[in-house]
User: Fold these one by one.
Assistant:
Number 1:
Amino acid sequence: MLKLEGIFKFYANNFIKTYVLRDVDLEVKEGEFVTIMGPSGAGKSTLLYILGMLESIDEGTYFYKEIPVHKFNEKKRTELHKNEIGFVFQQYHLIDELTVYENIEMPLLYQKIKTGERKSLVCDLLDRFNIVGKKDLFPNQLSGGQQQLVGIARAIVGTPSLLLADEPTGNLNSTQGNEIMELFKKLNQEGTTIVQVTHSAEKAAYSDRIINLLDGRVV
């Protein structure tokens, strides 16, 4: 499903290149659950953003379902983000002007899901995550953990075929964190391909395979 070959990512400043990723080869098969681990600054989040087509690469090739990503125009990338890729961001990226309900509903509007089905899907997740009472609140009225739950609900509501998650349980208590990982495992068993970044060996144990990064390289 995902194949990276010889990926380099760097930032140039005054002709000095600072490498974030160096010569990364990575393959993720459809239906896999993969964890990326490594110390802070290893390039984990950058690699996840590249997989999600939110960051470009400086060298190398990236194939999404055997099609080179550099051949996708903006319209094609937007289409994939709407219909195939769910992203759980470490910093939530909720829309401040929308309520909890509206934030979760947004991917379904993009997918042109009918009103009745949208309501059913959103209400199911509000109930599952025990945030029904928060549905009319705005992100700045929520705790970090609650915002995290809303971000996860938004990422999975449209049943994406690929779910990318950056420290998805970072701001949750242990019980909530384990519930989210069980949910991810269930989604994976139902066919969703998942790539997560985590520092937690316990959360990584839910995946089929662990990729370790160090100084921008796979080790």
Number 2:
Amino acid sequence: MNHWIIAPVVLPALLAPLIGFVMRHDIVLSRAASIAGTLALGVIALGLTQLAAQGETHVYKLGDWPAPFGIVLVLDRLSAMLVLLTAVLALIVVIHAAATGWDARGRHFHALFQFQLMGICGAFLTGDAFNLFVFFEVLLIASYGLMIHGGGRIRLQAGLQYVVMNLAGSTLFLFALGTLYATTGTLNIADLAIKVRAIPLEDAALVRVAAMLLMIVFAIKAALFPVQFWLPGTYSTAPAPVAALFAIMTKVGAYAILRIHTLVFGPDVGATGGLPGAWLFPAALATLAIGAFGVLGARRLMPMVAFSVVASMGTLMMAISAFTPQATTAALYYLLHSTLATAAMFLLADILVTRRSEGDALVPLPATAQNGLFAGIFFVAAVGIVGLPPLSGFIGKLLVLDSLRMSSGMAMAWSVILAGSLLMIVGLARAGSVLFWKSTALPAPAEPEAPGQKPPPPAGPLEVAPAMAALAGLALLAALAGPVARYLEATSTQLYEMQGYVSAVLGEELED
């Protein structure tokens, strides 16, 4: 077994309590340990991605217990790519949090941050449905602590709604797992893939119930209609670096749908009969429409960015709902793009909001000291979010549109995607003109509003660099679209080859 496979889970799991109990009173030491650990996670993730790129599915058996009786972690192209994306995003976010001083507003930011990485990486690597639930709970606990970091009544209220929704999802998750276990006698994903297909159609009612319960649970995590309402309030009130990290959180729900509903409840499974895709498609259409109208109607910057996350999830899930290799390739490319694009906008919003007297309200105010720089970053990030050339969003949306060209809902999908893009262009253009163009026509304040209050200092290089690094990632995705698309095509092909995954996990047990 390759012990590096478990490293993305073990490294933050060991680092988090060390920071929380030993370094909590020394912010400099906490920052150094957290940044170094995240950088090490990125190096490990890069090595695992190169290992998975060879095409083999690697399995790590904890305690050397054979599957399906023991806990297994599974590394393939999909899980390796998402762990690498998590590490890159985490490094960008933790540098921004340290540079802006967000991490100093509470003692446990970096400990919770590492626990969050543990949960995300574990969810991407686990080969067991029950341990997927466990890692979801780690995500819930850590993300709640991060969301209320810095305190405040509004943040606590939004955090309560977030916890209630996720606890409801966790309860349904347990019901679904209990139903699956009662029906099949296993929760190992590879073993489920075999046993669900062996159930006669006339005895598959409970399997269909479990499939729909899991779909609802993952839809809550992915903020799909009609359970998307928790996301705008949560993301807009969370600390901006935390909201940027949360850009990968909804993708965990999308990943779970993709993994479970291709391997276990795939289109070829008679027990579910294409039920997941039929439910996902209209939900994705509604999610995209809600997100686009939210961007258009937002009167504050942070909610506008949060609604753009909702819209991006609608586009992503529209491609996933087709459950074909071509559509999955498009979905994965758009997943990479949308994660970096929304994270960049959240980080920019944080720098901008702290330098405006009205916070994130979209009202004309005198120009900030670096108005041109902020306007340039906003413009590039907006181009990425909307999906205009030359950045990767344009390629991602073209791939999604092309992948849905032969589907029965092609006309509706194209109409909603294109109309939603237009609404978002108008909303982001209006916000940019209010924040940067109209502000230049107003005279600069002669003195600070409050006596003795100093104007905020200009943003330093380390404060601006993380957002610019995320935007550079979009440019890199566009420049390397060919090689990235080829990797994603191989990833999709591997995902839909169920036998390869099952053989790698069960191996000798299948022969017996």
Number 3:
Amino acid sequence: MSHLSGKVALVTGGARRLGRAIALALAESGANVMIHYHQSASVAEQTLANLRALGIAADAVQGDLSNTSDCERVVDTAVARWGQLDILVNNSGIWGPTPVGQTSVERWDELLNTNLRGTYFVSQRAAPALRAAHGAIVNIADVGVTKPWRDHAPYLASKGGIVALTYALACDLAPEVRVNAVAPGPVLMPDDWSTQQGQSAASSTLLKRLGSPADIGAAVRFLATADYITGVVLPVDGGHLLA
């Protein structure tokens, strides 16, 4: 497939895990890709090699998206590299347990600033280029917003904000820019999870199996190219919300 040939995509958090799968999916369709990373410099280099092997142009930019000036610099670097920006994927994010009674103000700020504030200010900076290109934003939400799990309230609040932000930006940036979100379910388990925890997550879906990062990449690519879809949050969860 090459229906994104000549397009330029910026994927935040694009060096590893879901971000890497998203970047590869866009590259496989012909897009040139700028991946953003925070601390994964060596991993970013490997991902760049994988992207370039697909025959597209790819580059990387470092930044801490809890810092608004870094949000702006990351976008400016992507736009300057190819002179355009057609697709923005706001994938970068952090998570972790924060039991009620044990959550510090610092951890709250870290989660909300990185996951929600960073997404907004990256999008704001990218908006002029995306408007010029009649482009698309795809945000990464989480099915936990609708079906929460325990001890992650600040993280889930940040992702709930992503859902609200998706709807609001779809209104604010219309008609030039389409804004949608993908809400992953049990797709990529934390690195420290046991086999038993993974099996439990799989059993929480109607399909009784885990998804794959490629499932998220395919969903992002679909929303990036679906010209009459905006303001949608698409669950990719194997039926977890209905199970």
